[in-house]
Amino acid sequence: MKETENSQQSGNSLPRDSDKALITTDLPALALELKGEENWQKTGRGSRTIYKSETMRILLNVMQAGSEIKPHQAPGPISVQVIEGSIRFNTETETVVLTKGQLLTLQEHVRHSVEALEEAAFLLTVSPLTSKR
Question: Above 70 in pLDDT, residue 8?
């Protein structure tokens, strides 16, 4: 079996709309890199797109304890998977605390916000809905 070259991605040049069939990412290394960036110091948050196509986006988000993402809505269904720490995920009707290893899904166009209860990292997957023809 042939090994793919440069399949390990950990930082600056993560593929977007990549033609590669297989892409791997070292999430702990990327989270550490994001925590070293200026945005982390200024806002208490950081984010990096790991993969982007017309049908799916995957982002790694890091947040300092007490930081928040203000209420907003996504253009398609999302999933949130905590890989470090804990977050509070709020919609207008529900609140859930997620810790390492937990996953939630949310339908499109539902207003929500996120608060880091402790230093946290999570994967956000968005599947934007295609416009109706």
Answer: no
Q: Once rounded to an integer, what is the mean pLDDT over residues 45-51?
A: 95
Q: Letter for the amino acid at 45?
A: R
Question: CB–CB of 46/84 below 8 Å?
Answer: no
State the pTM of this model.
0.82
The contacts of residue 71 (CB under 8 Å, 6+ apart) are 90, 111, 112, 113
With the C-alpha atoms ordered 70, 74, 27, 6, is the resulting torsion angle positive or negative?
A: negative
pLDDT over 70 (residue 88): yes
- Other C-beta atoms lying within 10 Å of the C-beta of residue 9: 19
Q: Residue-wise over 58-76: b if at least 16 C-beta within 10 A, else e?
A: bebbbbbeebebeeeebeb
For residue 111, the one-letter residue type is: R
Report the distance separating Cα 79 and Cα 107, nearest Å: 9
- Token pair, residue 88, equals 């509070």
CA distance 54 to 43: 29
